[in-house]
Design brief:
Layout lengths: L23 E3 L9 H7 L8 E3 L9 H5 L3 H12 L5 H11 L12 E4 L2 E5 L9 H5 L2 H11 L5 E7 L3 H10 L5 E8 L5 H8 L6 E6 L3 H13 L1 H9 L2 E5 L5 H20 L9 E6 L4 H11 L4 E8 L4 H8 L1 E3 L20 H8 L4 H14 L1 E3 L2 H5 L4 E5 L2 H15 L5 H17 L5 E5 L7 H9 L7 H12 L5 H7 L7 E3 L4 H9 L2
Bound molecules: pyridoxal-5'-phosphate (PLP).
Length: 514
């Protein structure tokens, strides 16, 4: 694909490193030639598809060189490959503003060696879940993109959350000029701490709404509003334009590629591996955004051998990797890892597109089948391209057992989502005898899921309040209670709207004064 390429005779590029522009197209074929900044503003393609890069760039520096960079420097090296229409100044500015002292460690993403695996801790940001890694920077990318594209309207972010995206997006967008944000969460489908974090969010431009439904209902509702042409027109007249902070936005995905490169570089720097050696990664998965970013990291040159996709009891992805059939027709189970309670993993579409040989027609056909019948089956050819992936799942009992076992053995306390991954990794290692150094992506602080974590470690906790348990956890783990938790101890509830999934659109209009 030569479209957008700089030719060798482009004299104004002489002396600069020549990189082919990455442009974005819809995974369903209805749109192409969209710039990175355009794709970030739009969120979803016009035809309901996801924006995918038209080719994969390659890292321009060696893995050894990566090992000498700090998080921000590396973030620039990685993100510039995908966001080719951002200037160096723009991109570095976004990175500076995102990865600052909102994080409680300068490393941004520390790597902890525990029980023969490396835990990549992605929960040191403002809301103590990995969503901060991308949502700290997305508002900056989006407002920069709006400026570049002369977007005059106010950007309205609509977000469905299974618990962590909501707070991270609220924290990211609160008070950001030229934006408003509405977050929908499943009223009975998030942890008490997650809910408290969201409903105490301050800011004139934010709105938090619980819906009587599950995460898939929230996500489908948001997608329907995005697809509603009448609503878009009404909005445009009033000076608004919708966008998304969900991982369907490439502005979420690209910053997530960074920490896979960083983890690899760190292992090289610490002498755990030599540059070029393979590693495996195990990722606790819901919407398939995080693990897909790992796959993108592999495409740009990080030697990742296996991507182990860990599910909780909502094991739709495990079944998919086993059988080649994706089937969401099953009961939705509420688990102790609520951020992974998902039956429609949106980002899987980007992988389906790739394994179909970048065939948008084939992908569209499968996605139509998914929305019509709740399932689809890939071809044998496509299945053979999934060899990089390994699926596994953990039961609720397994998760509690893993948290307790690792704590007793090492003193390290992990959250329920990370424990899903740790369980799946342990099972994989036993079954395969594969001893490749493995990074387990640690997606949340245990303080975010204190009840489940403490129940796993000490047994019965029924008569204890959340904050009593938090203090106890701090004591046994020997870790200070994070600021994100201290903040909500006494904070006032500012949002108490609950609506049916049918009323989501009306609620958005009300908030915008339409
Ligand atoms: C969102 C989330 C996940 C799932 O990540 P996906 O990108 O949706 O697969 C896992 N763990 C935690 C704590 C999360 O917040």
């Amino acid at each position: 694909m030569l479209f957008g390429c700089s030719g060798p005779n482009d004299w104004w590029l002489q002396g600069k490193v020549e990189t082919m522009n990455v442009q974005y197209r819809s995974s369903r074929g209805g749109q192409e030639g969209v710039s990175a900044s355009g794709a970030i503003i739009k969120g979803l393609a016009q035809d309901g598809g996801l924006f995918v890069p038209d080719h994969f760039p390659k890292l321009e520096i060696s893995l050894e060189e990566c090992a000498n960079l700090n998080y921000k420097e590396l973030a620039y090296e990685v993100m510039k490959l995908f966001l080719t229409d951002f200037t160096e100044e723009e991109l570095r500015g976004c990175i500076e503003r995102a990865y600052d002292d909102k994080f409680d460690t300068e490393e941004i993403a520390p790597l902890a060696e525990v029980d023969k695996a490396y835990y990549l801790e992605l929960f040191h940001g403002a809301t103590i879940a990995f969503k901060d890694m991308a949502l700290s920077i997305l508002p900056h990318l989006m407002t920069t993109a709006a400026k570049k594209n002369n977007v005059e309207q106010e950007i309205v972010i609509l977000t469905a959350t299974s618990g962590d995206t909501g707070k991270a997006a609220l924290a990211g967008f609160a008070g950001v000029e030229g934006t408003r944000i509405v977050v929908f969460y499943p009223k009975n489908g998030v942890s008490a701490i997650q809910e408290k974090q969201m409903v105490t969010q301050k800011g004139e431009n934010v709105k938090v709404i619980g819906i009587t439904g599950n995460f898939d209902d929230a996500q489908t509702g948001v997608k329907n509003i995005f697809g509603d042409k009448e609503m878009a027109e009404e909005l445009a007249k009033a000076g608004f334009v919708f966008s998304s902070a969900n991982s369907i936005n490439i502005g979420r995905l690209v910053p997530q590629v960074v920490y896979y490169v960083y983890a690899y570089a760190k292992l090289v720097k610490e002498g755990r591996i030599k540059a070029g050696d393979p590693i495996n990664v195990t990722v606790p998965t819901g919407n398939f955004g995080n693990i897909l970013a790992g796959y993108y990291a592999k495409q740009i040159g990080v030697p990742i051998a296996k991507l182990i996709c860990a599910s909780n009891e909502n094991k739709v992805l495990f079944d998919f990797f086993e059988t080649g059939c994706y089937d969401r027709n099953r009961d939705f189970i509420l688990t102790t890892s609520p951020s992974m309670d998902i039956l429609i993993s949106s980002n899987l579409e980007r992988l389906i597109y790739l394994i179909a040989g970048s065939d948008a027609d084939k992908n569209r056909e499968l996605m139509q089948s998914l929305s019509a019948s709740g399932k689809y089956t890939i071809t044998e050819d496509m299945k053979s391209r999934l060899a990089d992936f390994e699926g596994g799942f953990a039961s609720e009992a397994d998760v509690a057992e893993t948290i307790r076992r690792i704590y007793e053995k090492t003193g390290y306390v992990m959250d329920t989502h990370t424990a899903v991954a740790a369980t799946v990794y342990e099972n994989y290692r036993k079954a395969s005898a594969d001893e490749t150094p493995t990074v387990i992506v640690s997606t949340a602080s245990p303080f975010k899921f204190t009840r489940s974590v403490m129940e796993a470690i000490v047994g019965s906790i029924d008569d204890k309040s959340d904050f009593e348990l938090i203090d106890k956890l701090s004591e046994i783990a020997n870790v200070k209670v994070p600021n994100a938790i201290e903040e909500i101890r006494t904070a006032d509830v500012l949002h108490d709207t609950v609506c049916d999934k049918e009323d989501m659109k009306a609620q958005v209009k009300k908030f915008l004064g339409l």
